[in-house]
Amino acid sequence: MDENVGRFIKSNRRIVCSLCQPTNIEFDDTIIALRVGSIVFAKYRKANEIALEVEVCKREYEKNQKALIEMKENKKDTACHRHRLYIAENILTLCCPRCKVPFIDFEGCFAVSCHACNCQFCAWCLKDCGVDAHSHVKICPSSLAPGGFYGQLSQFNTVHVAQRKKAVISYLEKLPHDEKIATQAVITNDLKDLDIIICI
């Protein structure tokens, strides 16, 4: 079920015997397909797809973090490189709205809890919702699945590509013309990695 996808991801997509200790008896897809109905197996396959998408996102996040470190270590003291670093850290990296720790563990529920400060926030718009984000998530104006708590990773990506693009354009528009052109040139690959294309 949707609410258990997070547990499935944390188990590294393993279906194991709950009675065996340690849980080293693992069931493969063939056995699972023979033992469950087509509806359950379809849900299992869908959970696998979501888990793989999350793994890809985590790898991309780690790659971006590595690039950020390299930027900090090797950055030239030029305006466009300072702007590039600001955009990478403050616009392209999705963070907890309260403590600014990056978050990557999106697992389908858009009412997210920060593992660092326990802030409850909306994964659609990144609003700090205090102690519970569920009521806001159902009515969030940025939601592509209004009325519910769950959505697809593709919807999450669609919303954040649009929001990041808008924020980057807004940031660039405030720069002097020469800095804007130079900054746009150095961030093109950063944006392309996130499927963001801008023309200003």
Please give a structural write-up:
The protein is mostly helical. The chain has one domain (2-192). Helices cover 54% and strands 3% of the residues. The chain contains seven helices and two strands. The protein has helices spanning 5-10, 29-35, 38-74, 79-92, 134-139, 153-173, 177-192, and strands spanning 111-113, 120-122. It has a two-stranded antiparallel ribbon. The mean pLDDT is 83.
Q: Provide the helix percentage.
A: 40-55%
Instruction: Describe the sheet with the most strands.
Output: 2 strands, antiparallel
Secondary-structure element string: HHHHEEHHH
Tell me the Rg in angstroms: 20 Å
> Could you name the ranges where pLDDT drops below 50 across 5 or more consecutive residues?
none
What does the overall shape look like? elongated
Number of domains: 1
Give me the number of helical elements.
Answer: 7
**End-to-end CA span:** 44 Å
Largest sheet, spatial ordering of strands: 1-2
Strand content: under 5%
Q: Overall mean pLDDT score? A: 83
Q: How many E strands?
A: 2
SSE arrangement:
Layout: H1 5-10, H2 29-35, H3 38-74, H4 79-92, E1 111-113, E2 120-122, H5 134-139, H6 153-173, H7 177-192
Antiparallel strand pairs: 1-2
Helix pairs in contact: 4-7
